[in-house]
Design a protein that fits this description.
The protein has 482 residues and is mostly helical. It is globular and about 60 Å long. Helix 2 packs antiparallel against helix 3, helix 2 packs across helix 11 and helix 15 packs antiparallel against helix 16. Helices cover 84% and strands 0% of the residues. The chain folds into two domains: 215 residues, no CATH class; 267 residues, no CATH class. It is a multi-pass membrane protein. InterPro entries: Poly_Biosynth_Transport, Polysacc_synth. This is Oligosaccharide flippase family protein. Its main location: membrane. It is found in: Cell membrane.
């Protein structure tokens, strides 16, 4: 396996740590905080994430791009210049977020959110600087240090976000734990980049950075739209609910969303590996790039079909196992969200692949159209409660998926293997039927999961959906081999 393949495996490992600790935080806080405080925490973090994820991902891509191209003598100058530029950007964004706290709280129908939004604003500055360091390590192809740094941050976040509320600091403690974790991760990041940051070097040219920044506007806008699609439904659940119960209803919705979005790790991880592969090979080896995109799509579809089928067969049991009986009113929202979250992963893969072939503004146009449709459908279906808000997202993403598939086919000639796709969905339906019939509860749900997984794997093999050759393709995708 090539160094890029090994790096991909390391980064996939850090993705796994990210999801495990992320769910650990929500499962833990659901038991430590009150239901209303749990819902409020989720809303605040989602609100901050709209800024930190979008700007952080943009900073990571820009720094990674130029660190990978810069001569060794210019690395120190490039790193310090990037830290300064994004420190200023992060400071400005944090101040704007702080000053807009009252307006944001008003839009979310809860004035008590104002001090929490103000307190969380420092996260924007800290996470932007952390993203610069991660991007720098990525550009140097120091995947081992990058994976260690990101994994350490996720573990620190789990520890501090849960520890402070347990010590009696409540909701502010949970957000404060987040801040402490980023500070600790920043210290580790500077240590990881110490040699490059403090060695002597020449000044780096800034002309290319300006050109790349102009090109990356489309990527930035698409990233913003994708992140809004994955979080806007939660904001609607908070803002469109009665003020007296909006925190509790948001808590229900966060519980449903936490379960429904678990399978997204497969689509997001595959997109993270696929993006640089398609960027590198599309212009010279178009057929190879499209084949890998087709393989990634099929792998994601298999994972999503299984998890969606299993969770749809056991929505109440999964909620009870992960949370508590208090969260059972979230079942209707979970059922609607499971469909939408699965479609989002496939939509995400198509949009990222479109950006990889050099069409970021086309990708942004599709994501923007889906957002507009979600807005319209949400206000139309909101009277149905949390189920209506979740259904609006699912319907919008389904329409967006078919639009993205059509545009990507016309743009790059991409088409999935429809025969395998239909067989995969048929296997998912059979797993749903068997799981529904078994109906295990509590710890027995794990045995049902194993039975369903074995059945699904057997069906895929018998229908020749996933063979030995497919295993080889999966390894080639990670190993970056034609």
């Amino acid at each position: 396996m090539t160094s890029l393949g090994k790096g991909a495996l390391l980064l996939l490992f850090s993705y796994a740590i990210f999801f495990i600790t992320g769910y650990g935080i929500y499962f833990g806080l659901a038991r430590i905080l009150t239901l209303e405080d749990f819902g409020t925490y989720g809303v605040i973090i989602a609100l901050v994430s709209v800024v930190t994820v979008v700007f952080g991902d943009s900073a990571r891509q820009i720094v990674s791009k130029f660190a990978s191209q810069a001569p060794k003598a210019h690395l120190r100058s490039l790193a310090l210049h990037s830290l300064r530029v994004f420190f200023i950007a992060g400071l400005v964004l944090s101040v704007i977020f702080f000053l807009a706290s009252g307006l944001l709280a008003l839009l979310l129908n809860d004035s008590s959110l104002t001090p929490l939004i103000q307190f969380s604003s420092i996260l924007i500055l800290l996470q932007l600087e952390f993203s610069v360091l991660v991007g720098f390590l990525n550009g140097l192809h120091s995947f081992k240090r990058q994976a260690f740094l990101e994994s350490s941050y996720y573990v620190l976040k789990l520890a501090f976000v849960l520890a402070l509320p347990l010590l009696g600091f409540g909701l502010f403690g949970a957000i404060g734990g987040f801040i402490i974790a980023v500070l600790a991760a920043l210290a580790l990041g500077f240590l990881a980049c110490f040699k490059s940051l403090f060695s002597k070097g020449k000044s780096a040219s800034r002309l290319k950075a300006k050109n790349f920044l102009h090109f990356s506007i489309g990527v930035f806008l698409t990233t913003l739209a994708l992140h809004l699609l994955n979080n806007l439904d939660l904001f609607f659940a908070k803002a469109l609910s009665p003020s007296g119960s909006s925190g509790i209803l948001a808590g229900y919705y966060i519980a449903a969303s936490t379960i429904a979005r678990m399978p997204q790790v497969f689509g997001i991880a595959l997109a993270g590996v696929l993006f640089p592969l398609v960027v590198k090979s599309f212009s010279k080896r178009r057929d190879f790039a499209l084949r890998q995109a087709r393989n990634a799509f099929q792998y994601a579809l298999m994972a999503l079909a299984f998890f969606a089928a299993f969770f749809l067969a056991n929505p109440g049991e999964v909620l009870l196992l992960a949370f508590s009986p208090e969260f059972l009113p979230a079942v209707p929202a979970l059922e609607a969200l499971l469909f939408g979250a699965s479609i989002y992963s496939l939509f995400f893969l198509l949009v990222v692949s479109m950006m990889a072939v050099g069409k970021p503004f086309r990708a942004f146009s599709i994501a923007l159209a889906v957002l507009a449709l979600q807005f319209l459908l949400t206000f139309f279906l909101a009277p149905l409660g949390l189920f209506g808000i979740a259904a609006a997202l699912s319907i919008s993403l389904l329409a967006g998926f078919f639009l993205a598939l059509l545009v990507f086919q016309k743009t790059a000639g991409f088409l999935p293997d429809f025969g395998k796709a239909f067989k995969t969905l048929a296997c998912g339906l059979l797993v749903f039927a068997v799981s529904k019939a078994l109906a295990f509860e509590g710890i027995g749900l794990f045995f049902e999961f194993l039975i369903a997984a074995c059945l699904f794997a057997l069906l895929l093999h018998l229908l020749k959906v996933f063979s030995i050759n497919d295993w080889k393709h999966a390894l080639r995708l990670l190993g970056n081999q034609p």
